[in-house]
Amino acid sequence: MTNEEEPIVQYQDVNKIYRGGNVAVEHINLTIDRGDFVCLIGTSGSGKTTTMRMINRMLEPTGGTILFKGKDIHQQDPVALRRRIGYVIQNVGLMPHMTLYENITLVPKLLKWPEAKRRAKAEELIKMVELPESFLDRYPAELSGGQQQRIGVIRALAANQDLILMDEPFGALDPITRESLQELVKHLQQELGKTVVFVTHDMDEALKLATKIVVMDAGHIIQTATPTALLQHPATAFVRELIGEERLIQARADVTTVGAIMLKNPVAITPGKSLHEAIQLMRDRRVDTLLVVDDNNYLKGFIDIESLTRQYAQSTAVSDIMQTKLFYVHESALLRDSVDRILKRGLKYVPVVDAENKLKGIVTRSALVDMVYDTIWGENADHDETEAGPDHQPQAGGERHG
Amino acid sequence: MADMGTFQQFWYYLTTNGSYVLSQFTRHFLISIYGVLIAAVIGIPVGLVIARNRKLSSTVIGIANVIQTIPSLAMLSIIMLGLGLGVNTVVVTVFLYSLLPIIKNTYTGMVNVDPTVIDSAKGMGMTSFQRLYMVEIPLSMSVIMAGIRNALVVAIGITAIGAFVGAGGLGDIIVRGTNATNGGAIILAGALPTALMAIIADLVLGFVQRRLEPKESSR
């Protein structure tokens, strides 16, 4: 039947231009794979909702092609297409004159499922959102806003749709309810293997839920990236602004690599040197251990002052007392993943190597302290790459010297 | 007879001419109902159409408004010129007067259905017709019913005037009373059942209307 590898939705140079030349969206090229959780994010009027609503033909593009499971949606009956795609909107849109059971099983009913199958599906789904089965006979007005949207979410799953469209579904909810619904949706999406296209203007929400974030502005896609990549490399000043300086700084611990904060030019010695030279070097550089590298700068091991003192009489060369059991981290490793290990092992420093195992630098505990300091007090002026946000600068500077 | 009070005379008239009053009551009721039903059969679809094509709505409602402003006696006379004396003239008049409340309420009921409900109905894959009979009409039913209720109460009043064009009904008894010397009791025998009919129609349809009210969302 359908090829599992093929993307579930594909936009090919899609435009939506209203009469009178009003551009809603332009040159949209986007591929959504099965199992993706795609967040379309942008300010109002950026075209994110338009982009989403073209998938189920609630809006017709004026140019380009959209493929759903490899087939041009323009060739398909819009009613049949919409029954294969779940649809959740901000204001829930439950039918006020129908019970929750009737609401949940509306699409299955349109698809003429037998009553027993519909009943079983409704009972299965309402359990998934942790509401009692007795709720099935209630009317939407008897539920709180959060409960209503839970029903709105499972209604979109009732006919086993693979693709769910969500248009700012949690925008009208209070923060606590929103958070629990976000977790619910993420959980359902992962557990059931659904693909979700999610429109939001809330960056926290996008970063939390998405596997792929699509940033839109003035009808164009500005950047498509994973949340990590977006935080690491915002493509334009607009994206930076949308993410927010504060979030970028906070996210630095999450996305900074070890290489970015390591101290370069670590104190190192080659195995062939004599112990006398090693002591001399330690004394000059005021350190108690030395990393040992070969002539090509490959990391071999280390020597410390204790073994040096003990074995000074018997040995002559660094290689004799070198310890090769060595904990090191990779230059491109994320600091987030390394910091715990560094702290737990109680090491004063950790050597950093590149892909070829060449010594590049060291990460010391004091570098970590700097990192935490920056996170709390803002970016340090001397390694400042955030020129894009000039209005934040004076404030940050004032705090630092205060 | 002359020594009886007006109410005793009224009661006497009712007991002796009970079947006559009852038959006129039924006739009166049926004339009103026919006019309103025909108006509903035509007015509700018209209301649905103009709710889908909003551009037409001001024209259609404007025409219905003009009809409503013509005094009922003048309307009866004008239609009598075409249809002659008799019951048909009254039914047509009632029909014309019922159009405005029914069309207007159908239109209002339809345009006031929460657009997010319509959007989600469409987005879930309902055809235009399924949206109409599964969502829009059920949700606007109580407003449409309020229009019918209005129309019926007005219709009962207009039918009373219909006696002037020989349609019969409780108006006939009233006319009879105005022509008689000391006909107060006879007038009451026509007027009180008319008023009673209007009140009961209003109460019953009011009850039906409330039953049809959709349970509003608590948002």
UniProtKB/TrEMBL annotation, chain A:
It catalyses: a quaternary ammonium(out) + ATP + H2O = a quaternary ammonium(in) + ADP + phosphate + H(+). GO terms for molecular function: ATP binding. Residues 381-402 are annotated as: Disordered. Keywords: ATP-binding, CBS domain, Cell inner membrane, Cell membrane, Membrane, Nucleotide-binding, Repeat, Transport. Residues 9-243 form the ABC transporter domain. SMART domains: AAA, CBS. It is a peripheral membrane protein. Gene3D superfamilies: CBS-domain, P-loop containing nucleotide triphosphate hydrolases. InterPro entries: AAA+_ATPase (IPR003593), ABC_transporter-like_ATP-bd (IPR003439), ABC_transporter-like_CS (IPR017871), CBS_dom (IPR000644), CBS_dom_sf (IPR046342), Gly-betaine_transp_ATP-bd (IPR005892), P-loop_NTPase (IPR027417). It is found in: Cell inner membrane. It is an enzyme of class 7 (translocase). Belongs to the ABC transporter superfamily. The complex is probably composed of two ATP-binding proteins, two transmembrane proteins and a solute-binding protein. PANTHER family: CHOLINE TRANSPORT ATP-BINDING PROTEIN OPUBA, OSMOPROTECTANT IMPORT ATP-BINDING PROTEIN OSMV. This is Quaternary amine transport ATP-binding protein. The lineage of its organism: Bacteria, Bacillati, Bacillota, Bacilli, Lactobacillales.
UniProtKB/TrEMBL annotation, chain B:
Its main location: membrane. The chain crosses the membrane at residues 29-51, 85-103, 151-174, 186-208. SUPFAM superfamilies: MetI-like. Gene3D superfamilies: MetI-like. It is found in: Cell membrane; Membrane. Residues 25-205 form the ABC transmembrane type-1 domain. InterPro entries: ABC_transp_perm/SBD, MetI-like, MetI-like_sf. The keyword Oxidoreductase does not apply. It is a multi-pass membrane protein. Keywords: Membrane, Transmembrane, Transmembrane helix, Transport. It holds the Pfam family BPD_transp_1. Belongs to the binding-protein-dependent transport system permease family. This is ABC transporter permease.
